[in-house]
Amino acid sequence: MNTNRLLVGLGVAVVIALLFSTYVYRQFKQASTNVQTVATQPLVVASAPLQLGARLDANNLRVISWPSNKPVAGMFTRIEDCANRAVITPLAENEPVLESKLAPKESGAGLPATIPEGMRAITVAVNDVVGVAGFVTPGTMVDVLVTGQMPGQANNKITRTILENVRVLAAGQKIEQDREGKPQTVPVITLLVTPDEATKLTMGSTEGKIQLALRNTIDTKKNDPLPVLEAVLFAPPGGIKPAVQEGHSGSKKQLAPPPPQSYVVEVITGSKRENKSFPVNTDH
Questions:
Q1: Which fold has domain 40-114?
Q2: 213-238 tens-digit pLDDT
Q3: Who contacts 259 (Cβ-Cβ below 8 Å, separation ≥6)?
Q4: Which of 7, 83, 149, 278 has its CA 20 to 30 A from that of 157?
Q5: What is the reported pTM?
Q6: Which helix (H) or strand (E) holds 269?
């Protein structure tokens, strides 16, 4: 009796196992038939890291497979379509080559290809102090300050900020920043400016002394700081106060103090003291 029950239970277990295995097999078979092959298309990428201004050719490009249903705007499918053009931004290995990252075909390669239309690259001489101890490197943003003499006031100098948030294109002849961010001493710095800014910078570096102020690359706000007069900066407490003029945007501009119309001399005659005024000689 017990043997019969055992055989019946064993038979039921075998049947259930067969049914379960058959179900699992059918599910796997159905899943495998539902898998569809994803269509691909060629995509041109950089085969090695590329520096700013590098010219593209078959040696630094390669083609990979890319899903056809996920196209990238401005992508290239053939190497010959983007060869002999320069990159205007650094590319990492395997990074897609896009139209927006390339200079026009007629721009050539190197630094000139990285200058946007309507902009200019201008170079100014610097030293270790002007170049902020060598930390002004390609890709950084700077303000340009100039110190010179006030017109008609040979003994009064002024310092003003003439350019703000200007990009450094090159330090010396390098257009790529040191990977380790180490400072480097270079004799010249090349800045990316507008034509109007180029004239200001040329005048400032020719007739005065310039100084670069390094700023955070994400700080793009223009502060329009007030100029500083030598006579005001080094005046004794309660001495000369600068005149202030309201600007178009509501900001206040510091003006030069008016030149004195006369000077006073104390004259001592015996026990008598008196002050006498004499007009300022403006012929010198």
A1: Type Iii Antifreeze Protein Isoform Hplc 12 (3.90.1210)
A2: 988 888 888 888 888 888 788 777 76
A3: 152, 153, 280, 282
A4: 278
A5: 0.58
A6: strand 262-269
